[in-house]
Design goal:
- The chain is of the alpha+beta class.
- The chain has a 4-stranded antiparallel sheet with strand order 3-4-2-5. Strands 1-6 form a two-stranded parallel ribbon.
- The chain contains 10 helices and 6 strands.
- The chain is elongated.
Length: about 325
């Protein structure tokens, strides 16, 4: 007997209150944008500037021990990661320690660096400090600009791709869903003041791809059913399409979440922000592919026959069943 999370031949009415869902989504986007404008983001070292210290020790790197030794200095955002390289010997255990720039300073001072080195020597007397590098505010500002451009270009590429593959109504619906996902993700990071660094930008781009995948699967089925059910209202065709792909959408989201939750619990502090962004993105991406992209398509209307206009109505677009 096979386990089924979603039964076959479901018949949920997703568009009974589609205007309400669009309204809720719009309200959440406004709240997220307002939080971003008022509180801003808790930028990490990548965007705020700081100093990276590279260490080497013959003993294995213990991130928790390193972090406890540095925590007493109260330096704010400190990121510690172990560096893996197949060319390293058994006595080369390398770690990267990143310390944010202190308020009013462009980089970490030599006194702070010396204090960090002394703190680490108390727990690892044989530790070596291979290099010390600083990232100033100018470079950090360029990273913020580049990251924003990357997200905008990704969404623009999606707009063109969907437009060429389907119709402009599909493209606008998909892009609206992606903008919804990105804004809500940035909003939750602003509201909770979770550290925002380059890893989160990678998560945002991954969320864009994941959400688009769900949306395209639904839109493909919508296009097939628009040709198959030419006499049915657009809302009914959309409902049929979403119900037919619901099992696949739900199973994909659940299996992805299982892996992400395991990483969130067991992966440690280094990747926790990235994994949290992915978990949030999977949830809102699944939601938006149904209640934002498809609802927007219902609002805009769509051609029912790509070869000729509807013979009954004389209009090439479907009537919207409000």
């Amino acid at each position: 007997m096979r386990l089924k999370l979603v039964k076959q031949n479901t018949n949920f009415d997703f568009f009974k209150r589609w205007k309400l869902w669009l309204g809720i989504s719009g309200l959440m986007m406004v709240v997220a944008f307002a939080s971003f404008m008022i509180q801003g983001l808790n930028f990490g070292i990548d965007f705020r500037g700081g100093t990276t210290i590279r260490t080497e020790s013959p003993l294995p790197v213990e991130i928790g021990v390193y972090r406890d030794a540095i925590a007493v200095l109260e330096l704010g955002d400190v990121s510690i990661t172990e560096v893996f390289d197949p060319t390293f010997g058994p006595d080369q255990n390398v770690a990267m320690i990143r310390i944010q720039a202190q308020d009013g300073q462009e980089a970490v001072t030599t006194e702070v660096i010396a204090a960090v080195q002394e703190a680490l020597r108390t727990v690892r007397p044989d530790i070596k400090f291979v290099s010390v590098e600083s990232v100033g505010p100018k470079v950090s500002g360029e990273l913020i600009q580049t990251a924003a451009i990357a997200v905008v270009l990704a969404i623009g590429a999606v707009l063109i791709y969907i437009w060429l593959r389907f119709e402009w109504q599909f493209a606008l619906g998909a892009v609206l869903a992606l903008v919804h996902d990105v804004i809500l993700t940035i909003g939750v990071f602003s509201e909770l003041q979770i550290r925002f660094d380059l890893a989160i930008i990678a998560a945002l781009l991954t969320i864009v791809g994941y959400s688009l995948n769900d949306t395209v699967v639904v839109f493909d089925r919508v296009r097939e059913n628009l040709r198959k059910y030419k006499k049915r209202p657009l809302s009914e065709v959309l409902n049929i399409s979403i119900n037919e792909t619901l099992s696949r959408t739900f199973m994909t989201s659940v299996t992805t979440l299982l892996a992400l939750i395991a990483l969130f619990v067991l992966g440690g502090d280094v990747i926790r922000g990235f994994v949290f962004a992915m978990i949030w993105g999977v949830i809102v991406g699944t939601y938006s592919s149904i209640f934002v992209a498809s609802a927007a398509l219902l609002y805009l209307g769509v051609k029912r026959d790509w070869s000729k206009p509807d013979a009954n109505s004389g209009n090439q677009y479907a009537n919207i069943d409000a």
